Amino acid sequence: xxxxxxxxxxxxxxxxxxxxxxxxxxxxxxxxxxxxxxxxxxxxxxxxxxxxxxxxxxxxxxxxxxxxxxxxxxxxxxxxxxxxxxxxxxxxxxxxxxxxxxxxxxxxxxxxxxxxxxxxxxxxxxxxxxxxxxxxxxxxxxxxxxxxxxxxxxxxxxxxxxxxxxxxxxxxxxxxxxxxxxxxxxxxxxxxxxxxxxxxxxxxxxxxxxxxxxxxxxxxxxxxxxxxxxxxxxxxxxxxxxxxxxxxxxxxxxxxxxxxxxxxxxxxxxxxxxxxxxxxxxxxxxxxx
Length: 289
Hints:
The protein is built from 15 helices and no strands. With 289 residues, it is an all-alpha fold.
């Protein structure tokens, strides 16, 4: 039972829900680069390497954040914060996973793919978690660079370079992350304040992050449509992405109008996940690559 509990803790520290989004985004990048020409072996090895990198980033993030995680109800139960796992042990596993990710990707794909995966870990753990998150309310926006890299990793795994379709999808993911995060951060602003984390909902009145949420969500409409306008995806993609984007915008406006209404916030957060999955699905069924 002790071994099972430790394994369960390590799985939790790897942030499997985030890893799922990362893997789907990586696959979308691969699909844009090669489409149906992809092989099972190519996809499997690339996604294995990316999963290892994502798990590494999650564990190293938990290692760095163990002090402030203890101060927030959402994170106090994590194994690093609760003391169920030794911090040095988690650090070693996280670094080992990063090394394994690099080897898998450099051997099965190419050096660019492996380097982008390592850059993602560095940006998320060192730049975002260790520095920005503890020093500026721009952390969510700048830190979004790391979360938007998976499409570039997927494209590079197939082509060995970075192409325009992957860059456009990178922009979409970059714009999607701040409003996706801020909607729940607004509800937990007091917890972030007690933990000393200068998130935007802590440093500014609620109207400011809400206004920025609206701007980012509105910017998603032309960003997603750019994939159609540049010939990357077809009219069905354009219809799905535009319809989903308008619904997302209307839900954001409803959230802003209602104030800090928990149900409205949760509904908006959940739809933001559905929205991104709809974008990926539309890419898979109606891309021209």
